[in-house]
Specification:
- Helices cover 48% and strands 23% of the residues.
- The strands form four sheets. Strands 7-6-11-10-9-8 form a six-stranded antiparallel β-sheet.
- A hairpin with a 5-residue loop joins strand 17 and strand 18.
């Protein structure tokens, strides 16, 4: 039933009511009914005063007669006074309603009259006095029915939605701008709940990972992040929720199975049960650049060492060649003098004196060589070996990631201090860790682990153990790895471990190696405890 049909039906009902009233006897209007009518009139006036004082428009519609009553606020919403709109009726509402909304309003009214809806409610537009369209929320309910079940009287409210609609539009535009910004950002973006389920992802991360947006929205963070154990991601989430934000490097897996490094900046927001918002940057190029620079530094360092050794070797050869040649010549001359028919003893004695002089000259060259190679006494200070281990791991962070090696520090927090040279001890630790990495080159990535343990194993010294999960040492290599120029690596020089042994010995400690029962090898070294730290 449409609005127009409802109105015509009401007019017909109104005429019927008038005709019926004309045949009622005046004697039926007894005093009690008159008093009741007056009381109802005054109550209605009181309620009208209350309603007119509210900020909500109200209306009363006699569906059968078409009679409609609006309050002042109803008129104010569309910029008028009731006097300007008088006389008011259902036609008044239809006059200001947007034509495109009339059909929907009629359908909702009809469904309410049939009992399909508990109440009538419709957001629609009405024309303001200024000519603009304002949004209103119309809500009403049939209050009484005729004896034959037809709706008779309906009450409703009229709420101005213009401010809310404007705010919603501003919010919609803001969200659209926000969404566009995220989708076109150079960095990847995702939002996830506290269970790690991805709720929103941008196009950039979709391109990074090779997954479509639909695929990503059906995935969880652990599906993407490459971690050693399942608890790593959970630990990250717990840390994030505790401190509110975090920034770290990790690795993600693309759809094709390839792995790429990611720098992630993530924040936790406790809204909606908890949300994690992250920006992700593919740092593959950065890592490649770092690797290139590292290789260049290593090559330059290697070339420099070779050049130094070459120059040094040439100098040594030149300095020692002369006295050795002179010794040989004098020895041959003495031999000739002694082979003569009459040995020339005086000449032999002179040749021997020259040999002695040349020998001393060669010894002096060697002595200068030893002074050149001798390590100057380093400044010794009180040191926390746990702190030095942390510094070395920080320096090797990129190297360990590149080699896919997981280092597990097992450090005694109450370790006494030692006295020594920081740089020298860092050199020893770095050498042992990198040797461990080299020993695990042929090992599956998930098993490449190094454990560094510190402890007090002797009354007056501490022990540092560097344990790898590599192939271990051959029986004949365990006792020789500290010899100069002995190496088990194809490109090794055999000087790292001997230098380490010299450093540890200079610190009053000792160093040794042993194979692990479950595979791999462990290198141990001790350092004496400084009395001042006891």
């Amino acid at each position: 039933m449409k609005i127009k049909e409802l109105k015509e039906s009401g007019q017909e009902r109104k005429q019927s009511v008038v005709e019926t009233r004309e045949h009622l006897p005046i004697s039926d209007a007894i005093p009690e009914r008159t008093q009741t009518a007056e009381a109802l009139f005054h109550e209605r006036e009181r309620l009208a005063a209350i309603i007119n004082g509210t900020n909500i428009g109200t209306w009363e519609w006699n569906i059968q007669t078409g009679e409609t009553i609006f309050n002042n606020r109803w008129a104010e919403i569309i910029g008028y006074t009731l006097d300007e709109l008088a006389p008011v009726s259902i036609e008044t509402w239809m006059k200001f309603a947007h034509p495109d909304d009339l059909q929907l309003s009629g359908e909702l009214l009809e469904r309410h009259f049939r009992g399909d809806l508990d109440y009538y409610e419709c957001e629609s537009r009405m024309k303001h006095k200024s000519g603009d369209w304002v949004w209103v929320l119309d809500r009403g309910k049939v209050a009484s029915w005729t004896e034959d079940g037809k709706p008779l009287l309906m009450f409703g409210t009229h709420l101005d939605l213009t401010a809310r609609k404007q705010a919603e539009e501003v919010l919609r535009q803001s969200e659209e701008l926000h969404r566009t910004t995220l989708q076109t950002a150079m960095d990847g973006f995702w939002m996830a709940d506290t269970q790690g389920r991805l709720l929103e992802v941008n196009e950039t991360y979709s391109r990074m990972s090779g997954y479509s947006l639909e695929e990503l929205r059906a995935m969880c963070i652990p599906d993407l992040e490459v971690v050693e154990t399942a608890t790593d991601t959970a630990d990250h989430m717990q840390k994030l929720m505790a401190q509110g934000e975090d920034r770290f490097e990790t690795r993600h897996r693309r759809k094709d199975g390839s792995i790429f490094p990611i720098e992630i900046s993530v924040q936790y927001h406790p809204i909606g049960g908890g949300r994690m918002v992250a920006f992700l940057r593919d740092i593959t190029e950065n890592k490649l650049t770092e690797q290139t620079l590292r290789r260049q530094r290593e090559e330059l360092s290697h070339v420099g060492r070779l050049a130094t050794v070459g120059e040094f070797a040439a100098s040594i050869a030149h300095e020692i060649h002369q006295p050795l040649t002179a010794i040989l010549n004098n020895a041959q001359a003495a031999q000739r003098f002694l082979s003569a028919e009459i040995p020339e003893i005086a000449e032999v004695q002179e040749a021997i004196q020259d040999i002695i002089a040349d020998d001393r000259r060669a010894a002096e060259v060697i002595r200068h060589l030893r002074l050149f190679l001798k390590r100057e006494e380093a400044d010794r200070t009180l040191l926390d070996i746990n702190s030095i281990i942390g510094e070395v791991l920080t320096m090797l962070h990129g190297e360990l990631q590149d080699r896919n090696v997981l280092v597990t520090p097992d450090l005694n927090p109450g370790l006494p201090h030692v006295q020594g040279g920081r740089i020298e001890l860092q050199q020893v630790l770095m050498n042992l860790i990198l040797n461990g990495c080299d020993a695990m080159i042929g090992v599956d990535g998930k098993q490449r682990r190094i454990r560094i343990k510190t402890s007090v194993t002797e009354p007056d010294s501490i022990t540092i153990a560097v344990q790898d999960s590599g192939t271990g040492l051959a029986d004949n290599a365990i006792d020789r790895v500290f010899e100069h120029f002995y190496t088990t690596k194809r490109d090794g020089l055999g000087i790292g471990l001997p230098i380490s042994r010299s450093i540890i010995a200079a610190h009053g400690g000792r160093i040794w190696a042993a194979n692990n029962p479950d595979g791999g090898a462990t290198f141990y070294f001790t350092l004496p405890i400084t009395e001042k730290s006891l």
